[in-house]
Amino acid sequence: MALKFYVARRCMEIIPVVLGIIVISFVLMHLAPGDPATLLAGEMAPPEIVEQLRHQFGLDRPLHEQLLIYIGNVLQGNLGFSFKYRQPTVTIIFERAPATILLVVTGLIISIIAGTVGGVISARRYHSLVDYVVSSLSLAGYSMPMFWVAQLLVLLSVYVRFFPTFGMTSLREQLTGLAYCVDVLWHLILPALSISITFSAVYARLTKTAVLEAVKQKYIVTAYAKGLTEKQVFYKHALRNSLLPTITYAGMQFGLVLGGAVLIETVFGWPGLGRLLADSIFVRDYPVVMGMFIVLSIVAVVVQVATDILYAMIDPRISYK
Amino acid sequence: MHHRLSKTVALSILLVVLALPHIPAIYADQEGVPARGGVMTTTMLYEPAGFDPSFNFYWMPLWVCSQIFNPLLGYDLQWNLVPNLAESWSLSPDGSTWTFKLRKDVRWHDGVPFTSADVSFSLKDYGESHIYWIPIAEEGMDIQTPDDFTVIVKFASANINHQYLFCTSQGGIMPSHILENVPKEERPTHAFNSMPIGTGPFKFKEWVRGSHVILERNEDYFKLGLPYLDRIIIQFIPDATTVLRGIDKGDIDYAWRGLPGESTVFLATLPNINIHYLPSGHVARFLFNLNHSILGKLAVRQAIAHAIDKESIVKRATFGVCEVSDSLVTSLAWQPGPSLTIYEYNPEKAKQLLDEAGYEPGPDGIRFSFEVLNRRSEPDEVAAAEIIRDQLRNVGIDLKITVLDTISFNTFYFIKSQFDAVIMKQGEDTPVPKEIRMSFHSESVGKGIILGNGVGYVNEEFDSLLEQIFSELDEDKRKALTDQAMGILSVDIPAIPLYYNYFVVVVNNDFKGDFLPQHVNLYFDTLEAAWWVGARTTEPVIPVTTASIWALIAGVAGVVVTVVVSKLARKRKSTKMSRRTPPE
């Protein structure tokens, strides 16, 4: 019951956040030069057509009226109509979302697994050559901006010629079924690595620090005293407690990863939400930009709530009373 | 040893299975003969909003429209009119009335027969919606269709522009049975915009937003045997570096826009491509706001013209790909004649003119400063601005550069007129100087028309000459009038011509045919005659690419099975051996 109240409370907190995002992004978008009615009609459309469309989409109304109408529509689940794509915004966002989800989730999973494994190895072989190598790689990975890593991997793909350089699928061959899935996964490798290299460095350092802290605790001594082997003590007790910071960080970083997806998708031509957002900003497609901000902010808050719940499930000491 | 042997076997299986698909596919020998087949991949710098030709002006969606729609006529390589949807035509002696006889064997991509009703609808539609057609329709355009395959178009007067509009996808014929009853304001959002139906060599198959468009061969195309290609894939790739990578790896076969001049150094190292430098029809111009308190003065503009070294700009900003231009229009529309005033690079003369105009240098050596707007999407224009900034500093002018996205640029330049100067490429893609009219005729001053007279140039004599040019059908007389008009423009210098722009066009050697434009009509040429050297009349014995995927899966599965079997075998053997060992 306490958990349900907690979740409900966190969900209610989304509302003022989203409202704030709508107002700020609405004002910012309208400050930028450019006429969305021209975009909708086509730049060479006659002025009468532009005026008709301006009236049809309410763009001739005062700004505060447009904002209130937009908020009213959002509350009814209507995110507006894309000026560029001439489709409902919701349709466009949900068309592109799977590509970004695939990229971001894959990148996160790789970074969590690689980072955790690296951190564990480093902690178990503390002050050894292996530890120094892993720590150095973590530092290097953490220092490199994501877009720079992406460009390096692109360069690699040109010289090694083993991985695709852009896009989500091989368009020449009209692949279907399993072959299509394998093809998408093949194209996913480099973009997902671009995300995971930066974040796995962070997870490695977090895991290492947490593990080293955990093995000093008194319950570890108790576990040894009970006759457990070193592996059992380490993996069943120390490591499990060390995962909590990693989970927290993963939830907090989800928003950052989504932001990084804008750059990664542009570099690799991945047709996801990141590219949609970048393209929409440049062409002043207000409904899509605002719709994206709303959806992404809701997703970020939902992920944080999910992280909190998972945290409670892993650590019985956590309660939401 | 057994373990080592099973690993060796597993590796060998994997290597053989991976190598299999890379054995060249076996075909019958048919080199040099165009055959049906093949997929060409090309790129587009940005994703358009739609493909309705009535609402599109820019070359990118119009290039796609050129694959899907047919105009009534076309151009050959010498700019002579040739048949297209109209199998014959005639022009009245006064040049105002065109009579077209239409082909009877044409069908729309949905199977409906093409008739004169489609032509009538399309021309009227353009007359109400398209910026090039509206002034013509307003002057007077009457369309009659005495039967299903005859169209008579009567204009108020002769105009050389009519010919151009009948020959490109900006006059591509649209299906009346789909669009006739669609209200104008619903057209931008109508399904036709995202799934156009035409009569052209390729059908619109698929549009994945953010990724690509696919066109497929129209099997019922009225030109027998054409097109050859199975499909054309147009990928949206805004980044030139990505395009270069794709060309290098063979993922992109044809790239004709967006490759900067500096890319030629890298492209020259690639083995399987042809590089062409084709005139784009555009001239890069340094345009002035003629209402500016300083730049509005003729002497100042002349001084700036003398201060600019165009050779240096061509070498450094375009890497030698482009050519210096002293004319605001390309040689396609007009060959520079004696009437043209040329401003030679002469910094000392520039300083003298500025002194005489009353702009002496201050204590910091600066006479005055102004701002130039550039488009981020055109790196050569930005580079040109930086070079010009250095050159103007030498004569005491401080130039500030602002780089904007295209929408902001258009807003400040064309719509709000809030600028001092801009650098922009514009020009003609046919022998008809229609773009000069849009850019410098006073009719579009102050109207906020994109690509219109944003500089605010007004000259009645120039306007009058332009009217005469368009109504003059005699080529020699038209050229003489153009000479006069361009002479006036070069004296008034509302803009400084910098360089003729050339596109770096890259074609994969595996594609042949007469599709590569020999003139500037890159935007409107179809790929109907393009063919792939690998196309054969028989299916390949081993389809290569799908097999690669399955071979990889089979290889990995083979390795896993071998390892598991060998482990099981080893375990069984060790169990047997331990059973033989008698307990102590």
Please give a structural write-up.
The complex is a heterodimer of chains A (321) and B (584). Chain A has 321 residues and is an all-alpha fold. Chain A has twelve helices and no strands. The N and C termini of chain A lie close together (9 Å). Helix content of chain B is 34%, strand content 20%. In chain B, strands 11, 12, 13, 14, 15, 16 and 17 form a seven-stranded mixed beta sheet that branches. In chain B, strands 1-10-9-8 form a four-stranded mixed beta sheet, covered by helices on one side. At the A-B interface, α2, α3, α5, α7 and α8 of A face β10, α7, α13 and α17 of B.
Radius of gyration of chain A: 24 Å
Query: Could you spell the SSE succession of chain A in H and E letters?
Result: HHHHHHHHHHHH
Mean model confidence by pLDDT of chain A: 83
Range of helix content of chain A: over 70%
SSE-based structural type of chain A: mainly alpha
End-to-end Cα distance of chain B, whole Å, is 29 Å
Number of strands of chain A: 0
The main β sheet of chain A shows up as: none
Strand content of chain A: under 5%
Kindly report the oligomeric state of this protein. Answer: heterodimer
- Sheet/helix structural class of chain B: alpha+beta
Can you tag this structure with a few keywords?
heterodimer; A: mainly alpha; 78% helix; globular; B: 584 residues; seven-stranded mixed β-sheet; four-stranded mixed β-sheet; 19 strands
